Amino acid sequence: MLIDTHSHINVERMADILPEILQNLETGVVQKVICPSFSLESSITALGLARSQPKVFCAIGIHPENCIEYNAMCDAFLRKNAGDTKVVAIGEIGLDYHYGMDNRAEQFAVLNKQIDIASEYNLPVIFHVRDAFDDFLDWLKDNRHRFKSGVVHCFDGDKDTALRVLDHDLMISVTGLITFKPRADLREAVMAIPMDRLMVETDAPYLAPEPYRGKINRPEYTELVAEKVAELKGLSLSQVAEATTQNAYKFFDKMKDNNE
C-alpha cells in the first residue's frame, strides 16, 4: 500500500476524474490521499472532501503565493477547523520567490501566523519552498522549536540542500520530478535521504511522472514515484511502500486514529 501525501484532488482540473480516483482508492495500490490547501477556498473544499471520504485526509493553510489574502476570516477558519479529525496538518505554507520577492515580508508574516496555529493544535506542517531555500533554512535556525514536525513537500533541491533540511529534523517528500531526465541533481539528493525521512507524493494535478509527463497527474502515479525511489536506492517497491507508508502514519499521526 502507498499513501499519496500531497495531492490536490479537490481542484477544478480534477473534477471529471475525481469519482474514478476515489474508486481506485478502494482497490488500487494507493489507498490514502492527503489533500493539502493553498487558499481559504481550497481549505474549505479540501476539508469537505476529507469529511465525506474515509480514505481522504486534508491539510489546511494559505500558500505563500496567496499570502495577501490572509485575513481574520482565514485565521478564524484555520483555528476553528485545525482540531477536526480529518485535518492532519497545516499546509501548504512557506516561502515562494519564483515570481519575485516583492511580498517577502508578507510571506514571512503569514508563515509565522500559521506556525502559531500548528503549534497551538500540535499539528505537523507541510512546507512549500520554491526558489527560497536560503531564507527558509535561515528561518528554521530561529523557528524550528515552534512546531513539532515538518515536511518539505515536492523537494526540488540538490544533495547539499537536502542534507541541510535534514539537519533541522524535517522530512522530505518527492514527486515525479525525480523521473525527469534533466534532474540528476535531484536523484542524487534522493539517494542521500535516509528512508526513515522520506515520503512520496504526486502534487497532482501537476508534475506527472514519466511516461505521463505533461498530462494531468493523479494519485495512482505515486507508484511510479515509489518505483524510481526503489531503483535509486536498490530496494524493492514493497520495501519503499512499507517504509514511506509508515513514515506517513508517523508524521501525520492523526491519520492513524482514522485508519480504515
Number of strands: 8
Count of helix runs = 9
CATH fold annotation = TIM Barrel
Unreliable residue runs: none
Under the CATH scheme, the architecture is Alpha-Beta Barrel
CATH superfamily: Metal-dependent hydrolases
- Rg is 17 Å
Strand adjacency order, main sheet:
1-2-3-4-5-6-7-8
Question: What is the CATH class?
Answer: Alpha Beta
Task: Tell me the major beta sheet.
Answer: 8 strands, parallel
Strand content: 15-25%
Element order: H for helix, E for strand:
EHEHEHEHEHEHEHEHH
Helix-and-strand structural type: alpha/beta
Write the layout of secondary structure elements.
Layout: E1 2-4, H1 18-27, E2 30-35, H2 40-52, E3 56-60, H3 72-81, E4 87-96, H4 104-120, E5 125-130, H5 133-143, E6 150-152, H6 159-167, E7 171-174, H7 184-192, E8 198-200, H8 222-233, H9 237-251
Parallel strand pairs: 1-2, 2-3, 3-4, 4-5, 5-6, 6-7, 7-8
Helix pairs in contact: 6-7, 8-9
Molecular structure report:
By secondary structure, the protein is of the alpha/beta class. The chain has a single domain, classed as Metal-dependent hydrolases (TIM Barrel). The chain contains nine helices and eight strands. The chain has helices spanning 18-27, 40-52, 72-81, 104-120, 133-143, 159-167, 184-192, 222-233, 237-251, and strands at 2-4, 30-35, 56-60, 87-96, 125-130, 150-152, 171-174, 198-200. The chain has an eight-stranded parallel beta sheet with strand order 1-2-3-4-5-6-7-8. The chain is globular.
